[in-house]
Q: What sequence folds into this?
């Protein structure tokens, strides 16, 4: 099949909350010579968005229920950005269209079941056509994946690989929650509650591995651990609570290690936690954070409390105010030990609401990495992770956009 591609990037779901933010970022930061299109169900809404942005970008009508429209979309461009979720409900037809057309793809999913199905159904197709299908290109899971990539690069430069125990610590975080994120959580909880196979996939530490049978037997890696800071590194204080997205991000990082033929190390162990401060009350606060996360999941799983929460939580299409987005920020510190005894730390931080303003930058720059990265990117197709697909290319682009991504040896 001969495919004529006169666009470099198409934003699908452009009139949604995060889609608008991503399109706006591209409108303000688009390099010369990059051709962009806006796609969605409603041409009227697309026309209004284009007018608001002051662009003459091509407008493409496409719908998740219309495979022909998705095929035409994929065949018109080199890279597709999609913000249309929940991805388990709406995402697979577009993955299929891109994989079959040899079109690169980026999204924002934090849904392990969708990601696993994408691998099982379309990894071989994408490898054959050269399509790079890259999930989780926002706050889930770029800081996790590129943070470990930075540690890996620093230890590699010193000749101190392989890595062993590695911990992500969310040091600070300020931002809002959108209805789309809540809706994705609802749908995944529904699938897990109804399907024992889905429950097993969600529970496996290596559920996204390309070959789980080859994963090293390191014992159970607990993605919901309460951790004493000093057990992470002497520089870390207080009691650390489980990070709410640890059960997804950890699987992305472990997949990156496996896709790289376990370059981080066969004894590489990874976990994610968050700081609640170093006061005498930090153990209590850590417990409250853990209870709150569990209570939200339990509440959304139980029909009577779910009915109440649905009235209180943001609806799909809603998100934080501009003030909240502008005043948001996050800082992640990562710590790694190595088999040689050397220790390393990395920092990944940015201004802007993590799930929205900062995520729009990460998503747009991921697409620009694919459109402009050339030979420095991963050469083959397949269902990839951000670290494998982009590596240093995205890290450099994000630094240029104002993010801090750094790594150094400790001691």
A:
């Amino acid at each position: 099949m001969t495919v004529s591609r006169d666009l470099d990037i198409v934003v699908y779901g452009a009139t949604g909350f995060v889609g608008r933010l991503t399109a706006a970022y591209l409108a303000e930061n688009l390099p010369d010579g990059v051709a962009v299109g806006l796609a969605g169900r409603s041409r009227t809404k697309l026309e209004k968005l284009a007018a608001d942005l002051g662009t003459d970008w091509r407008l493409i009508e496409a719908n998740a229920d219309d495979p022909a429209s998705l095929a035409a979309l994929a065949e018109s461009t080199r890279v597709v950005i999609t913000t249309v979720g929940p991805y388990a409900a709406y995402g697979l037809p577009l993955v299929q269209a891109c994989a079959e057309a040899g079109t690169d793809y980026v999204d924002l999913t934090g849904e392990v079941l969708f990601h696993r199905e994408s691998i099982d159904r379309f990894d071989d197709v994408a490898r054959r056509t050269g399509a790079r299908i890259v999930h989780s290109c926002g706050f889930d899971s770029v800081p996790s994946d590129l943070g470990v990539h930075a540690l890996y690069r620093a230890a590699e430069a010193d000749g101190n690989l392989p890595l062993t125990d590695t911990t992500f610590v969310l040091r600070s975080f300020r931002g809002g929650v959108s209805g789309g994120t809540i809706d994705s959580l609802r749908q995944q909880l529904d699938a897990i509650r109804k399907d024992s196979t889905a429950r097993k996939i969600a529970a496996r530490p290596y559920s996204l591995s390309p070959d789980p049978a080859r994963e090293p037997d390191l014992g159970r890696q607990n993605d919901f651990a309460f951790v004493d800071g000093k057990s992470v590194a002497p520089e870390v204080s207080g009691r650390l609570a489980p990070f709410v997205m640890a059960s997804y991000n950890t699987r992305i990082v472990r997949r990156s290690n496996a896709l790289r033929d376990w370059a981080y190390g066969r004894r590489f162990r990874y976990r994610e936690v968050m700081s609640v401060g170093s006061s005498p009350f930090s153990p209590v606060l850590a417990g409250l954070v853990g209870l709150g996360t569990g209570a939200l999941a339990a509440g959304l799983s139980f029909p009577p409390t779910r009915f109440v929460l649905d009235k209180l939580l943001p609806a799909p299409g809603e998100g934080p105010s501009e003030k909240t987005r502008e005043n948001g920020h996050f800082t992640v510190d990562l710590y790694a030990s190595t088999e040689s005894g050397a220790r390393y730390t990395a920092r990944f931080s940015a201004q802007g609401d993590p799930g929205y303003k900062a995520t729009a930058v990460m998503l747009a720059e991921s697409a620009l990495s694919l459109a402009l990265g050339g030979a420095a990117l991963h050469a083959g197709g397949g269902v990839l992770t951000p670290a494998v697909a982009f590596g240093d290319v995205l890290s450099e682009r994000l630094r240029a956009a104002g993010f801090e991504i750094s790594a150094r040896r400790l001691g």
Summary: The radius of gyration is 20 Å. The CA atoms of residues 276 and 285 lie 6 Å apart. The chain is about 45% helix and 20% strand. Residues 282-301 form the longest helix (20 residues).
